[in-house]
Here is the input.
Amino acid sequence: MAVQDRDSDEDRTEVLTLDELIATTTDPEPAPAEPSGPTPGGWVARVAVGLVLAWAVLCYPTNVLSPFTVGGVEANAVSEAVIFAVIGLSLNVLIGYVGTISLGHQAFVGIGAFTSAYVVTEMGQEFFIAALVASLVGAAQAALLGAVSLRVTGLYFGLITLSYGIMTQESIFQIESLTGGTAGQAAPRPLGFESDFRYYYLCLLVLALVVFIDWRLMATKGGRALLALRENPRVAATWGINVKAYTVLAFAVSGLFAGLGGALLAHRDLNVVANPFDFRLALVFIMMTVIGGLRNRAGVVAGAAFFALLRNGELLELLRVADVFAKPPISLTAEVMPLVLGPVLLLLTITLFPGGFGQLTSTVGRWLRGGPFRFVKADKEVQITDVRA
Amino acid sequence: MSAPDLQPERTTLLETDGISIRFGGVQALNDVNLRVDEWEIVGIIGPNGAGKTTLFNCITGFYAPTAGRVRYRGQDVTDLPVHKRANLGMGRTFQNVGLVKGSTAGENLKTAQHLEVDYDPLAGIFGSPRTFDVERHTTDRARAILDLMGLAHLEHTRVQGLPYGVLKRLELAAVLATDPDILLLDEPGSGMGPEEAEELGDLLLQLREEFELTIVMIDHHVPLVTRISDYVYCLNFGEVLAEGLPDDVRRHPEVVRAYLGDEATDDSEEVA
Here is the structure.
């Protein structure tokens, strides 16, 4: 062992600091048994699939640079998929990283939407300033709720978030000067992004930004602190982590994302009304996040996109089954599909596929990077302990 | 190895001044005075339920004592929260292994370096370029400490499911990563056989040299405690039953009675 080796040096009296230790520790890392990489044909397949995926995201929804024209897809619906992904990542911070829950996320998003619309319409500011204000307001209100979470946990905290969402719906969203009453608050799009398909790219850019922030959060001390305090706050504290401060920080980050998502949603619709921001929306948000796969960025994005497209009828349209569901005897509108299909998928996720969509995205992602195509197994244990009781 | 004499001027590092704590009707600790000098290894023994871990919880800040003060480097830390005491240099391990089980060993050691990682969490979130460099350094440090503890092969292994002995060692590695001045070890030798305990004793003595550590350890392995400790306290029913040099405490009649009378543990004969 390294300690004993160094101790044989009898003359050494001074104490090694950790940094010196690093300098003296040689790490001739044995190269891990490299699994034989894919064949040239395999690489061609990977590049092809990668291109198709890139095309599906970047070109298909807007018919840009597409070799053939595919109709029937509405850019606004796909924008919603991207915006939902932002909101999903927001909830993932709370449920996945902190291990708490928000059943009132429609309020987080709605506050962002109304703030942004108000700043643009009533205060005459640029969209980008409005979006920034909306995310900051979102962060601030979430931080307040985070402070509450320090005192109340488990089921009762869930109850508080649930009532917070409904309280916001019934109070803040009813303030006429802020929300423009039943007519709603106008929310024009920024210059250069007026058309639906350009706005879609703006949404993609914001999603990229949020993914970047989320990635850096989890790759640095803040994210590590969150994972530690979620699992074992006592140990986190002995390692010098300020459990309270980091919990509030996580709420603020979640609120930031949600506020941003709300702003995007407002300007996509050009007009914000209070109606859509009700509890059923919060339920969809939670289901899409958990079914997407907690702590799995790509999974959450996929789950959110799935639910948004399901909600808009795009998915059923694409699969050519829209009629089956819309006609009697089933007679379900696309709008309620997430609430009907969601619970089933949620149950499947919790019992059989704890990694959710993330298990699929990880499988494909690993294959695309040159790994073998093998179904990624998620560990059951971590997922079930997610929401702290 | 006996107490080293290369430290002429000894300052008191940690001191508890009449610590008492009550849980409902139970007096868990009663007027406990503990003194730990720099560079010392202090052992705390005593039967189960004597209040040893409770004392640790008071020292590290998990419990607020009903009476008494905790002083660290002369500073009254009684009202400081746990993470601030960690910041002052207190490192601690837990009886039931204090690790983040869902993460890998490497991740655990990076998390434990929280205070050493020199940037604001917000800088990390918004991708400040400096954080990338610091992160690389953090990873290197984690690797170096794992290597030092002979655990380098576990860097990318999830902690969950590792054998108990390995977990104990990894926990020690993690607490070293916090760069502590004083280590409070809660039963580091639990679940170990005599040879392993012997090895652990060597390791602790070496770590003290390597990192200039002061160590307070709770353990039931009386031979281990008496071998490496400079001073020993024996607790029973929340009170200090005896204190002094290891061999004196081991032979102290009250201590012998406490061990033999209350619980006939494996250690009882060795106490006598």
In short: The two ends of chain B are 22 Å apart (CA to CA).
